[in-house]
Amino acid sequence: MREKILVLGGSFDPPHKGHLALFLAALKRLKPGLALVVPAYQAPLKGAPEAPAKERLELTRLGLIDALPARFKRIVRLDVREILSRRKVYTYETLRRLRQQHPGAEFHFAVGADSAASFGRWKNTRELKAACRWWSAARPGSSEGIPKFFGKIPGKMPDISSTELRAMLALDQDAKRWLVGSVARRIQSRKLYGLALLADLKSSLSPERFAHTLAVAGWAQELAKIWGADQDEARLAGLLHDFGRSIPVPKMPAYAAAHRLSVPCREDIARRQPMLLHAYISEDLSKRRGLGSSAVLQAVRRHTLGAQGMTLLDRVLYVADASSPDRSYREAPAIRRLAQEDLDAAFSACLQAKISHALSRGSWIHPLTVSLWNAIAA
C-alpha cells in the first residue's frame, strides 16, 4: 500500500485556531501515515511576514503540533526547509522535493480557503494539480472562489484569518479566543504583531490620547479598505500619527529645533501654535524607531497641516484623524458618513471644519493649510 502523506502549508503569521481546525479535520478525514507542516519563509503571493521566521516556527509548533491530540502527534513533523532557504519558495518546488524524499507516496495538500481561492495565480498549476490531491475547508464568508477540484474537508471552520488577527492584535483588541493559549502567551511575552508599539504608545501617551490613537488607527484601516489603500499602512499611520504628543506642548519647539526638523514656518508655529509641531515630531520619533515606510511617515507628517498633492494614504489618515469615532464636534458624524461615500468630499469637509474652528477662535492659520484650501476651492 502506498504511503499517504498530508501536507499543510502556509505562512502561519500567526497560526490560529482556524489553522488548527483545518489540520485536525484533514487528519481525521484522510488518516495519513505522515503529516508535514510546512511554514513558508515568504509566500510568493504575500508580502514579508510580520513575525520573524524563528518566531513563526515556534508559534507553529505550539499552535499546530503541540495542540494536537496525542494520537496525531506521533505522525506529524515540522518541515523547516522553506524557512531555512531564506527565500520565496514556490509550492511546486516543495512538492518536487517531498516526492523525491518519499518516492511512490500518495500526497494530499491542505490549505485554507483564502489560499485555495488564489490557486489560479500560483506558479505551475498544471504540475501542482498532478502532483497531489488538494483539500480545503470553507469558513463563513470565504467559500467563494475555491476551485472545484479541491476536495472538501468536513467541519465548521472558525471565521478568522491571520490578516484579521494581526489587525486585532495591532489595535489592542482581545484576540485570545482565536489563539491556542501557548501561542497567545508567546505573542504577548515576545511583544509580536504590534504589541511592542502598543506598549510604547500606552506608556508615552495619556489614556485619552491613547484611546484616540486606537480609534484613528481602526478608522483609517476601515477607510483604506473602502478606498483601496493599503490597510496595514493606514493602520500603522493611525497608530503613529500622535506619537509626538508624548512631548509636552511647551517643549515641542525645543525638540523641533534640537533635531533640526524641516517644518515650514517653524518659528511662526513655535511662537503662535506650537501644537502644530506634533505631526513633524511624530514622524521623527517614528523614523528614529525604524517604524513605517516613507509613505506612512509622509502621511503622519501631513495629517495636521496637509499639503498639496496629498496621496490616497495621506487623505485617508487626514480624514480618519479629523473624523474618528471618538470625535464629537458638530460636523463629525456627517463627515464620518461622507467618508464612506466620497473620500475627497470628506477631506474637503474636514479641512473646512478645521479652518472654521480656527477662525471662530481667532487663531492663526498656517500657510500650508491656506494654500491647500485655495487649491481645493480653485
List keywords for this structure.
378 residues, alpha/beta, Rossmann fold, Hypothetical protein af1432, 2 domains, 6-stranded parallel β-sheet, 20 helices, 6 strands, 53% helix
Structural overview:
With 378 residues, the protein is an alpha/beta fold. The chain is 53% helix and 7% strand. The chain has two domains: 4-160 and 174-190, HUPs (Rossmann fold, 3-Layer(aba) Sandwich), CATH 3.40.50; 204-377, Hypothetical protein af1432, CATH 1.10.3210.10. It has helices spanning 17-30, 53-65, 70-73, 81-85, 91-101, 113-117, 125-131, 162-170, 181-190, 195-204, 207-227, 231-240, 252-258, 266-272, 278-288, 294-302, 312-322, 332-339, 343-360, 367-377, and strands spanning 4-10, 34-39, 76-78, 106-110, 133-136, 151-152. Strands 3-2-1-4-5-6 form a six-stranded parallel beta sheet, sandwiched between helices. The radius of gyration is 25 Å and the shape is elongated. The termini are far apart.
Structural class based on helices, strands and sheet pairing: alpha/beta
Strands of the biggest beta sheet: in what spatial order? Answer: 3-2-1-4-5-6
So, CATH architecture of the largest domain?
A: 3-Layer(aba) Sandwich
Q: Mind describing the biggest β-sheet? A: 6 strands, parallel
Query: What portion of residues is helical?
Result: 40-55%
Secondary-structure element pattern, one letter each: EHEHHEHHEHHEEHHHHHHHHHHHHH
What's the number of structural domains?
2
Number of strands: 6
Distance between the termini: 77 Å
The tally of helices reads 20
Q: Report the average pLDDT across residues.
A: 95
The fold-level CATH name of the largest domain is: Rossmann fold
Radius of gyration: 25 Å
Give the uncertain stretches in residue-range form.
none
CATH class identity of the largest domain: Alpha Beta
